[in-house]
Design brief:
The complex is a heterodimer of chains A (333) and B (580). Chain A has 15 helices and no strands. By secondary structure, chain A is mostly helical. Chain A is globular. Chain A has a domain of 215 residues: Orthogonal Bundle (MetI-like fold), CATH 1.10.3720. The model of chain A has no long low-confidence stretch (mean pLDDT 86). Chain B has 580 residues and is α+β, with helices and mostly antiparallel strands. Chain B is built from 19 helices and 18 strands. In chain B, the strands form five sheets. Chain B has a six-stranded mixed beta sheet, sandwiched between helices. The chains are: A mainly alpha (333), B alpha+beta (580). At the A-B interface, helix 2, helix 6, helix 8, helix 9 and helix 11 of A face helix 1, helix 2, helix 3, helix 4 and helix 7 of B.
């Protein structure tokens, strides 16, 4: 297993290199630059700005400088726990072009925990609703208890978050007046409890979409498994239905869910631009999109690199979990 | 047998089984906090953010986007200005209701010489938040800082009205061989005493005090700048929360990226007794829809924007919550004169300008109280009021088109209207496309581009007709007309007119306002005869405003001196949720 993980980690390097190179080329070939504005910057000033940010060097030198800066140089786990990539790994993603005086490292360190927290709530909700609903639907196949959750799930998948988000804000925020319609922390509040109401609506909006997907996958997986011989055998042995469902059926029935889960976790944890815009959340997703609009070269590269690494690592974890859960699979020797 | 029993149990007790298994799996336990939260959130006395903030004397303000910087010499945008002008005060400050009036800030008074090109400012006793006294040396340092090319200040040209300032800057950008860069002493700035500053200008300039309201003229605290990397350092450490040193009515309290920036009353401000707000929270809300929802839910006292489709609804149902004020900005179409084709012909350009029904566009499409632009420089500048240059005249437009060789649009090539991707610009372009088709019989294609691509296309003359906008830097026609001089970086049309250039140049040499305005008026009439641009409408600033906010007066530049704003006490619910 360790060999498997090690090989996969080594594969990470060329994959990331390709991603960085492609992103670098793409972002630099787009028309318009970080300092183009409606009110034009004079040429003298533009030159000084380019000089300051190292944009006057030939592109290949800028590219290699960037590669040099993002090479991990040290390992300091305690700093890494605070998302400090510079102190933790010696990775320097450079200064942001738009936000003067703030580095990409800082922006990611500041915004990723927010997206992570929101994503964690959303995933929790998704699991909480999706898996029981899917299981229930599979067990009560072709009854009302199957149709209702499954058609709701269909709706959940079809309704995009830019519809669902404002809808929730309207119903739960403006009509029922239960939760604030935007924000992440209570401006005058101090504790976790003050902030909690702000997190419900975005977590619901983000979570319900994935809950719907999870429910459908769980139902599909469970239906297939429930017809298998070993389930009948388990029942024949006299095991209680609960044990049969949870211990025998779910374990196999959830395999498709788990392979779906890897990219989902990466996507959810690294933030959703739309939800962060709708609910005014200071997460990574907003930087991811706005950086491209602002031609904030370093921030584009930094967020892409961060997101790519996250997806690859989470996929690896999913692969490991899949093997551990499915006795038919083995780590490739 | 046992199988059958089991199956029997399974079938008969299905609901119980499900319930049991869900109970055991902790489904309900997990759900409990959410149910409880929903219940508790729904009952009990609840105070809106705005009400709580009102009791604390804190204004909650939507501020469109995350500030890029808080350095007055580097900043370029309106959201930055809204914050910086709370934290730093220049020689002249914003007047509570009149952008053309002098409101003394750090200067207690000033006088000019007879020629009108030397200004002497007498500074009042004021303090920086680090305890330093504000002196004339601080201004000397600040202006030297912005004029140093290494800083890369985008607004440096604002200071070129100071004698020799431009030469000081340019001799350092591209030093000519064998030539020494101009020493600082040669620049028209003199510290006469600790509290007296003399500024010599390139010529007489009666509107100079108004220019001083712009943040590029704000001072910074030299000791703080030097402590954080020196004069031209752009690391931005000095303006981080905790480091920021200002001299304004408020001081920086906290700053969370993309979330909230909070300022609080500065007890050491020279006029602290007049400051009625205890603080302001700026929310960088990019989406107008989100901002509108925040206002309705009682999370904001005022917004920076109103979603276009909600303006008529507010106007009709809750008119006391929406405010539309005139704004010193013009929305216009640029015409590319470097391309061969019919647009080279001034008769065609005139026909295009005359066949836009601006009144209908403003009333039926925009609905935000804008004024039709029958001129280029927005009206409202005291002393500057030329007649309307344009009108809606389809008959004359058709005649001009026929004269130019395109009767009824015959043989007219398909040209393109370029705009940056945004609903509003698209709607306007579609309306104008329709008007031109109806009146002149010509077809145009619409072409939208992402913001920065669109900016590039305009500077590189890769367009036929392009949407544009311009907001004045100070209340004077000069800030609108100067950009269409030959080769100006913001011209972007390829238009060049010797007489126009001459008029603009002589306008800055005369010290008499009436004479100056006469020259500028003549320049505008040339611009409106030649029409390298087609003015469409004059901007307005439309916001949602909570009734508790007092003294929020119409301002041409929407510059607010926040020390004059206060919040009325008492619960005044906006009741905006009743809109639906």
């Amino acid at each position: 297993m360790f060999r498997f993980i090690l090989i996969r980690l080594l594969q990470l390097v060329p994959v990331l290199l390709v991603i960085i190179t492609l992103t670098f080329v793409l972002v630099r070939s787009v028309p318009g630059g970080p300092f183009s504005a409606e009110r034009k910057v004079s040429e003298h000033v533009l030159e000084k700005l380019n000089e300051h940010y190292g944009l006057n060097d030939p592109l290949y030198i800028q590219y290699f400088n960037y590669l040099k800066n993002i090479c991990p140089k040290k390992l300091n786990p305690s700093a890494l726990a605070d998302f400090d990539l510079k102190e933790g790994l010696g990775i320097d993603l450079g200064p942001s072009f738009r936000y003067e005086g703030r580095t990409v490292n800082e922006l990611i360190a500041e915004s990723f925990p927010v997206s992570f927290e929101l994503g964690a709530y959303a995933l929790f909700l998704a699991l909480l609703i999706g898996i029981p609903a899917g299981t229930l639907a599979a067990l009560k196949k072709n009854t009302l208890l199957d149709y209702i959750p499954m058609s709701s799930a269909m709706m959940g998948i079809c309704l995009p978050s830019f519809v669902l988000g404002p809808l929730f804000a309207l119903v739960f925020g403006l009509w029922l007046d239960w939760f604030p319609v935007s924000g992440w922390q209570s401006p005058g509040g101090f504790s976790w409890a003050d902030d909690l109401p702000y997190k419900i609506l975005p977590a619901m909006t983000l979570g319900i979409f994935y809950a719907a997907g999870l429910a459908r996958l769980t139902r599909g997986g469970m239906l297939e498994v429930l017809n298998q011989d070993y389930i009948r055998t388990a029942r024949a042995k006299g095991l209680s239905s609960f044990v049969v469902t949870v211990k025998h059926a779910l374990r196999a029935g959830l395999l498709p869910v788990i392979s779906y889960f890897g990219p989902v976790v990466a996507g959810v944890l690294s933030g959703s631009f739309i939800i962060e815009m709708i609910f005014q959340i200071p997460g990574l997703g907003r930087h991811f999109i706005n950086a491209a609009n602002n031609r904030d070269y370093t921030l584009v590269l930094g967020t892409v690199l961060f997101y790519a690494t996250l997806i690859i690592l989470l996929n690896l974890i999913v692969d490991v979990i899949l093997v551990l859960m499915n006795p038919k699979l083995k780590f490739d020797k | 047998m046992r199988i059958q029993q089991k199956e029997f149990y399974w079938i008969r007790n299905r609901p119980a089984f499900i319930f049991e298994s869900m109970k055991r799996s902790g489904f309900f336990a997990g759900l409990t906090p959410f149910i409880l939260l929903g219940l508790t959130a729904g009952c009990g006395p609840k105070f809106k953010d705005v009400e709580r903030a009102q009791r604390e004397g804190i204004l909650l303000r939507g501020n469109s986007t995350e500030p890029e910087t808080l350095d007055p010499h580097v900043a370029t945008g309106v959201p930055e200005n809204q914050i910086i002008s709370c934290l730093i005060e220049g020689l002249i400050a914003y007047h509570p209701n009149d952008d053309t009036a002098i409101e003394y800030g750090m200067a207690e008074r000033f006088e000019t010489n007879a020629a009108g090109d030397v200004y002497t400012f007498h500074l009042r006793d004021a303090k920086w938040t680090n305890g330093d006294a504000v002196t004339a040396w601080d201004f000397d340092y600040s202006y030297r800082r912005i004029l140093t090319p290494e800083l890369g200040a985008e607004y440096v040209s604002m200071l070129f009205v100071i004698k020799n300032a431009q030469r000081y800057f340019e001799s350092r950008v591209t030093p000519k061989p064998g030539e020494q860069p101009l020493p600082w002493e040669e620049v028209g700035l003199k510290v006469l005493e600790d509290k007296t500053l003399e500024i010599t200008l390139t010529g007489p300039m009666p509107h100079f005090p108004l220019m001083l309201k712009h943040y590029s003229w704000f001072p910074v605290n030299p000791r703080t700048i030097e402590a954080h990397g020196g004069m031209t350092n752009r690391d931005g450490q000095w303006f981080a929360a905790g480091n920021f040193v200002g001299n304004g009515a408020f001081r920086l309290k906290s700053w969370r990226t993309n979330q909230i920036l909070e300022v609080e009353k500065n007890p050491d401000y020279w006029d602290a007794d007049r400051v009625r707000l205890n603080g302001i929270r700026f929310f960088p809300v990019e989406s107008a829809d989100t901002e509108g929802r925040m206002f309705k839910a009682g999370q904001l006292h005022l917004t920076d924007n109103v979603p276009l489709h909600e303006i008529p609804i507010y106007r009709q149902k809750l008119p006391h919550l929406i405010r539309t004020d005139p704004y010193l900005g013009t929305y216009f179409y640029r015409i590319n004169l470097t391309r061969e084709g019919p647009l080279q012909d001034v008769r065609v350009r005139r026909a295009l300008a005359l066949s836009i029904d601006r009144a209908s566009l403003v009333d039926n499409v925009l609905k935000g109280g804008q004024t039709p632009a029958l001129f280029y420089v927005p009206r409202g500048i005291p002393g500057y009021a030329p007649k309307d240059f344009l009108r809606f005249d389809p008959t004359e437009a058709q005649r001009l088109m026929a004269e130019a060789g395109y009767p009824g649009g015959k043989d007219f090539p398909v040209l393109e209207i370029l705009y940056n991707t945004r609903e509003e610009h698209k709607t306007i372009a579609e309306t104008i496309q329709q008007m031109w088709k109806q009146t002149l019989g010509i077809n145009l294609r619409l072409h939208n581009q992402e913001w920065k691509v669109y900016l590039d296309a305009q500077s590189n003359f890769e367009y036929d007709i392009a949407r544009a906008g311009w907001i004045g830097d100070f209340v004077d026609p000069y800030t609108f007309l100067e950009m269409f001089t030959t080769g100006n970086g913001n011209n972007d049309t390829g238009w060049s007119n010797e007489r126009y250039d001459g008029l603009i140049a002589s306008s800055i040499r005369t010290g008499q306002t009436s004479k100056r305005f006469a020259l500028l008026e003549e320049a505008e009439s040339i611009l409106m005869d030649e029409l390298p641009i087609i003015p469409i409408y004059i901007y307005t600033k439309t916001i949602l405003l909570h009734p508790a906010v007092k003294n929020w007066n119409p301002k041409l530049l929407d510059n607010r001196n926040m020390k004059y704003i206060w919040l009325e006490e008492g619960p005044t619910q906006p009741q905006a949720s009743k809109l639906y």
